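ESCALATION

Customer reports they have been waiting on this structure for their group meeting. Please prioritize. Original submission:
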Amino acid sequence: MTTTERPERSVPKPVFTDAEAGAHEFPDSGASARRYNYYNSINASRTHYEDVTVDVQPDPRHYLSQGWIYGFADGSARYPLTWTKLKAVGRGSARARALPRLRRQGLRVCPPTAWHEFRDPNEEWELTFYRYNANVVRQVNQNIENARYAKAFEQWTPNWIQFVERNVGAWMHIEHTLGLYVFAACNRSGPTNMHNTAMAYTACHKIRFAQDLALYNLTLTEEIEGFDGTAHLEAWNSDPEWQASGRSHEALTAVDDDWGESIFATNVVFEPLLRELFRSNLVMQAAAGNGDFVTPTVMGAAEFDFAQRDLRWTQACFGPLTQDKEFADYNKDLMQGWLSHWVPQAIEAARVLQPIWSLPDAKPPRFEDSLDRAKSRFSGIVTDLGLSVPKELSQ
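Update from on-call: job pushed to the front of the queue and completed.
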């Protein structure tokens, strides 16, 4: 059989015009590049936290001149600045100085640059989050295991056993509610990825602590004869002392479309006036006298979460807004209104809890002394934010 040779086929040759994606080499495009240069660091040098956090969330008001690539069915774009009543242009920033010119050009919303100036002082990102929480869980578990081996739970007084099964157990419901329905619900509403990342990790702190309490409750059920691991459900649903706390925390989950008010009310108002009051001024003060050296280590992890991490980023978020070049007075009036609305609810919930101060055999400091400490702590936080202590605090 004979074969005939085909003539050579004519195929258009590719012509590279350097218009294809990735054709242009930027200073930070190479494999040796270790830092991005598209954002301005607030420090002398860029940090790893900034590299993986800053401007990860797109914002056409800042970059991306082509606009949002997706939006809602009603036509509104993602991450609108109207998702909080707070406003910001910065404290003397270039964008703040340019505000009159920008308004003459028809800008109808406050420029976003000031929001992009926010940085979490904890520099929390995925790696540091896992390391921190792994260390906390490891420490808590080691403390509990050591107590089991030492038979430390046998030293608990009978009334303290009942106090822990009902009231410490009930606390997990509050932490779960805040983590899942306040912080996790708000973590896609902030104007920048830096805000949303901080809210997401605070949600994880709360959910982790709720889980710590749930697992601790199971351990106590195994270790202490007669310990009722389901008593917290009845206490949370039926005990009069917990009903005001339940209502107030449900109210936090129902704030009308304002992530700023939700976070402000939770971390600035309720955390010092109610949650630190219970954790630090009741449980951690009374435990040792009732033979319990374990529960304070579990509660102390949550105290550190707030005092050394969550409060720091909250102050960095709201503090500059009271010094804003354009909207300082507006923001102060707004936050003062939030204080007047939420402080009475926190004080009411705290006072309704007063009867449980008398339950342990070895009593903690007087309720009024504990509440005064909580009020002093709250007043310091409010003052540091540049706000006035509300008159409702005297209730």
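Sent to customer with the following note: DSSP finds 13 helices and no strands in the chain.
Escalation resolved.
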